[in-house]
Amino acid sequence: MEHLIAVLFGLAFVLWLAARAGWKVAWPLSRRPNHADAAASAACAQASSTGDATAASLSARLHGLEAEYAPLASNLAHPRELEDQPQFAEAVGVLQDPAVPIETVMQYALGANWPLACAALAALKRRADRSERSGEVVAHFEKLYPWPIHFALEYLLAVEPRPPVGDPVAGAKEWWGDNLIVPGLFRDYFARRESQGDAPAFGPALNAPYASSPEQIRAFLQRVNHGFATALMRQLDNVRRANVDRTFLVSFGRFWADGWTVFEAGAADLMAGQQWFGQLEGRIQRTVEELAASKKLIWYIPDMLQMARSGTHQGQAASVLDQILPAVISGRLIVWSEATPTSTARLLQLRPALRGLLEAVRIEPQSQQETAELAPARPPNLCATCCPTRISPPFTPSRRVRPCATPS
User: Fold this and answer.
1) pLDDT of residue 148
2) pLDDT in tens, 204-229
3) Hey, what domains does the chain have and what are their CATH numbers?
4) Strand order across the 261-264 sheet
């Protein structure tokens, strides 16, 4: 107890001397712990153990400056106004010094302490070695707070070579679009890139580990009012069309290779292997999503009448055809089928709404000479005894008519 009292008395005496000498004591703001602070603390401990107090003094100085300029941020309208604060400018100057290792600057730039992250990113823009870490900054965009995003975008405008315009957008988070300033920050960024003569492109960013889903990226770009955002959304649509889960689709159907991509599957194919309630419905819904018309895909259904008669069970009153019709009506799905005149009449009797939805094109029998020429190339499962009627939407892309031989 006597030792404790002595320690407390000594501490009080030191603080009294500091006050008498006019020393300035700056206490850092409370904040969440982050890897940058942990690394800085470790550096301080190592510096103390080796007698080199450079890292410790750098950390103390930066946190002291942060304690002065961070509270002022709540009264500012835009992150760029931070640069008018003397303490912020001093922190930038400290980290801009070439004597400070770039690894130390990056620790602060990508840390969760956003006031110091702003200063570090602003300093990184001014450093001669700034271009060395552009890829690392882009990869961590998804983890940045709103105000550091401004300084990170400013940094990307200064590096050489500049990354693709869409690189920082690839990591778009759900909250970006709802934030008050983030859409505006990217609008200004797009305008600056346009003035620099850069073209709107994602490059390889969409396949990077940090990339968000195309739907999430598109949702954010819709909030950014700029022509580059529109151009990037078109690229996302092209990527989406190309990304078809063929492994899933060929597990029960077949792809054709011609003009547009044609996928073939009937009701029996869809129901194969489905044992539990909900399995078939899930497969149908996913098939409709994968075969979206925006991907330039056509669903060839060998027997539309069978689709209208299949798929119902105790928990599902809608047939397979009923479940895909909403997508066909809205134009999200293009279907193509063949049926005999009798089957067509029965189908229209069961589903009268199809009469105004699909276009029926009758295929006349070919001559014996034409049939003989096509016979060697005729698929083995092609009916050789009937003349089918093709049922297709008016906007179905042109394709060679599948032959049907007349009875001999």
Assistant:
1) 97
2) 898 888 999 888 999 999 999 999 99
3) 26-159 (no CATH), 164-243 (no CATH), 246-368+384-392 (3.40.50.300)
4) 254-257, 261-264, 297-301, 335-339, 389-392, 359-362
